[in-house]
Design brief:
The protein is mainly beta and 349 residues long. The protein is built from one helix and 19 strands. Keywords: Carbohydrate metabolism, Polysaccharide degradation, Signal.
Length: 349
């Protein structure tokens, strides 16, 4: 009997945690979102860099609660609600942005690694379907989720959640309210490939797209846990909320259980009142099938000037340096070049 119980515990532990955590962003070490204010370029502490946000206090853009996590994610004590409101403009840009970046020196951009997170929306403060949203993206946009109407696409709105590689949709599903989408990006930085794992609710991750070729460029400090919304004329800002859970990066074998590493055999987190449901996903069977092609986001040409630069102004690394209606600094700091991302946005890289 004792042997059977021990075997069951071992089997459960192995099924929950299969890999080695390189960076843990599950908000377990934060008492509230105000802890993010402790981080600065001169005091790089905590699990996240916090500098891409609007001008209001941190609680306007990031809030933590057990009610904000996937109930099946028992490895997380709480989840995060990340918000875009009418003040969420960073550093003079014309795009709304609220993003957190891993604070770590671990090799999250080496070898084969898995970037985990769960994402959910509600009908209250739902993301607009009439604007493109870039979610959980890298600076070079070699892989990311997208929602809403894709820039340059026909039509007016789009209700799908998409996984994209270099701007091309490789998987998509209807983004319904109160459904937790559990995701792992399978990234091989040596082989320059990226694959996609997904499930909903409490279901274990399953491979939806096998690894395909991608320009897997990352300096280890450019994965954005959050959202960037591209502007679109004629569509006013509305408040939007995005719910995040189970954010971590691992190497070795993939953890497919949504409970996550460190959750224990029966789970350790308190239950929540969140409503969840499971939906079927639409997948693309081969890497050569593309449902929608967004405007290119990986070209490295310099953007044409669209406005006059303020005098004596220099844009720092990662900052915007050009784009339609942009009026901020257009000269990048020494060592960086203004690179075209899209018509609305160029960046010092």
């Amino acid at each position: 009997m004792k042997f059977s119980l021990l075997s069951a515990l071992v089997a459960n532990a192995l099924s929950v945690s299969a890999g080695t955590i390189l960076w843990d962003g599950r908000f377990n070490d934060l008492t509230s979102s105000t802890d993010l204010n402790k981080w600065s370029w001169g005091n790089q502490v905590g699990p996240y860099q916090y500098y891409i946000h609007g001008s209001s206090p941190v609680t306007a853009y990031v809030n933590l609660s057990p009610d904000y996590k996937n109930p099946a994610d028992t490895g997380s004590r709480q989840g995060a609600k990340i918000t875009l409101d009418n003040t969420a403009y960073w550093n003079g840009q014309n795009m709304r942005r609220t993003e957190l970046i891993p604070q770590t020196t671990a090799a999250i951009n080496k070898g084969k690694v898995y970037y985990h997170f769960s994402l959910m929306r509600k009908d209250t403060n739902a993301p607009a379907t009439t604007r493109e949203h870039q979610i959980a993206f890298f600076e070079s946009h070699f892989t990311e989720l997208k929602s809403g109407w894709l820039s340059g696409a026909p039509g007016v709105s789009d209700t799908k959640l998409r996984w994209c590689v270099s701007g091309n949709t490789q998987w998509s599903t209807e983004w319904e309210a109160n459904v937790w989408h559990n995701v792992a990006y399978e990234i091989d930085f040596n082989a320059n490939t990226v694959g996609f794992w997904h499930s909903t609710g409490s279901e274990p991750l399953a491979q939806k797209v096998a690894p395909i070729s991608a320009s897997t460029s990352s300096n280890g400090a450019d994965w954005h846990v959050g959202v960037l919304e591209l502007p679109r004329s004629g569509y006013p800002d509305t408040t939007e909320d995005y719910y995040w859970s189970g954010v971590y990066i691992e190497s070795g074998s993939l953890t497919t259980s949504v409970a996550g590493p460190g959750s224990g055999p029966g789970g350790s987190s308190s239950s929540t009142s969140s409503t969840t449901k499971t939906v079927s996903s639409t997948t693309l069977s081969t890497s050569t099938t593309t449902t929608t092609k967004a405007q290119s986001t990986s070209t490295t040409s310099t953007a044409p000037s669209t406005s006059t630069q303020p005098s004596g102004c220099t844009a720092s690394h990662w900052s915007q340096c050009d784009g339609i209606n942009y009026t901020g600094c257009k000269t990048c700091a020494s060592g960086f070049t203004c690179k075209y991302i899209n018509d609305w946005f160029s960046q010092c890289l």
